[in-house]
Amino acid sequence: MATKKSNPAWQQPMPAEQFEFMREILAAPSPIGLEGAMSYGVIKPFFETIKPAAWAIQQFKGNASIVLDTHPGEDQRPSVMFIGHADKIRMQVRSIGKDGKIWVNSDSFLPCTLIGHEVKVFSRSSKGDGYRMIEGGTIEALGAIHFSEPAQRTGEKGIKPQMLFLELQIHGENCKTQVEKLGIRAGDPIILDRPIRHGFTKDTFYGAYLDNGLGCFMVAELARLLAENPLKNLRVLHTIATHEEIGRFGAASIAGELKPDILIAADVNHDYDAAPGIDDRRMNSLAMGKGFTLTNGSITSAFLNNLIEDACQAAAIPCQIDFAGRDTGTDAMAAALAGCDSAAASVGFPIRNMHTISETGHTGDVLAAIHGMEATLRHMDRMNRGRGLTRDTLRDGHPRLDRASQA
Question: What is the mean pLDDT of the chain?
């Protein structure tokens, strides 16, 4: 039986070294399709440092995903896959104008949230020796207020995606040629430039790309805890996936190949209580600073969710319940998309201002998720009189509403 801690980690400030590791993960330039900076550059070296000798790291051909496997090759052992996704939403170069304007798309950003923000552009080097990073540019659309329409000045008319361009201060003769000589071309990714920093309020932080560096951080930190005290019965697949933001394709390919018995996605969620203008949507109460989130509905397993909730309650780890209809919106869908039989769950961190340069989170929620998942795994490992959770446990554990007691 889990014991309640008198001074639990999720009620304390995140240690400085741990915060810096989280910052390093979130700062890694890993736009969709180019996730290697995070998965290979930050998390793989961390995995190599903390893993016991018997654990193994697996890489893939079609994407830069990685998996830290606690029991490689032991397919008979029940497996639990935790997934965070390394890919970040990005802008892309659409075309280059004669005046040197670099027209961009807005991808999954609201166009109005991008104006004036500093960005980094990545393009292939003309020397063929990798990629070049170009800094010093901003995203613009309207220019000076003096040139805007009256409706734009009053806010009645907004910014359309096709109005966005990257301003690199190009001037003089042959502006388009100047840009082309930099090696910039259609499809080059552009990411926001704001590493996380501590917020004004205690235990808060803000910056770009909490989505979904936080999920990857949770997966990495969970691996560290398990490496210090390994499980006896369960195989754990600590997974850093790709291509989530355009369809969960990286996680789906990994789930299809490794076929985990349980798949748990770690991703950001919303602080509905603080979200502006959504009162009429009657959203469930979720709030930053009150614990991690657990989603009911969609393809999630009621048995698995109940197990997670019970393990967290036993350890007094704060957990908030969310809901979903057809789709969780996270990599929890990966096994279903791959046609793989896995019990799925989706855990998250309630943040504010998702898909902006000022995403805001609470370290207590992140720590609660890490320790909540550790408590869940250790509970699974003790099940069935110490033999651990089995595949039959999952097969026979589906709740029976025909056996529900009368209220």
Answer: 96
Give Cβ neighbours of residue 83 (< 8 Å, ≥ 6 apart). 215, 219, 239, 240, 241, 251, 254, 263, 264, 265, 266, 331, 334
| Whole-number Cα distances in Å, 127 to 72, 178, 183 | 40, 17, 10
Identify the three-state secondary structure at position 293: strand
Query: What's the whole-number mean pLDDT along residues 382-400?
Result: 97
pTM above 0.70, yes or no: yes
The predicted structure's pLDDT at residue 366: 98
b or e along 383-396 (b: 16 or more beta carbons within 10 Å of the residue's beta carbon)?
eeeeebbbeebbee
d(CA 56, CA 236): 11
Tokens matching residue 40: 């290979």
Structural domains in the chain plus CATH codes:
9-88+209-397 (3.40.630.10), 91-192 (2.40.30)
- How many residues are recorded in the chain? 407
DSSP one-letter code for 157: S
Residue pLDDT, tens place only, 232-278: 999 999 999 999 999 999 999 999 999 999 999 999 999 999 999 99
The answer, yes or no, to whether residue 2 has pLDDT greater than 70, is no
CA distance 241 to 60: 10
Q: How far apart are the first and last CA of the chain?
A: 29
Phi, psi (deg, nearest 5) at residue 84: -115, 150
Which H or E run contains 324? strand 319-324
| Long-range contacts (CB closer than 8 Å, 24 or more residues apart) made by 222-225 | 222/82, 222/370, 222/373, 222/374, 222/377, 223/47, 223/50, 223/51, 223/68, 224/46, 224/50, 225/370, 225/371, 225/374
Q: What is the largest CA-CA distance in the chain?
A: 81
pLDDT-derived band of residue 407, with 50, 70 and 90 as boundaries?
A: confident
When pLDDT is averaged across residues 124-150 and rounded to a whole number, the result is 90
How far is the C-alpha of 297 from the C-alpha of 300, rounded, in Å?
A: 6
Percent of the chain with pLDDT over 70: 99
CB 361 within 8 A of CB 349: yes
Structure confidence at residue 4 (pLDDT): 57
Contact 91, 138 (CB under 8 A): no
Q: For the beta carbon of residue 117, count every other beta carbon within 10 angstroms.
A: 18
CB-CB contact of 260 with 74 (8 Å):
no
